[in-house]
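Deliverable D5.2: sample structural annotation.
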Amino acid sequence: MTGGAWLIYNAIHFLWHLLHLDVFPSIDKIGVAVILGGLLILSILMMLPVKETKPGPSVRLGEVGGQG
């Protein structure tokens, strides 16, 4: 859910800035495009499913450090 919200926000924000780059100097145009593009990519990555991991061996508190 959070990834979807970030994706929508960053897509609109990125598009708005790309349409209004004419007021910035060249170095700022590059910086804005790179930074906001990176945020857009990160929000897309947040939408990818998380890989399930197998749980490791269970250890009881008394068994830690050889006590038990």
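Annotation notes: Residues 2-48 form one domain. Residues 26-45 form the longest helix (20 residues).
The annotation will be released with the project's public dataset once the embargo ends.
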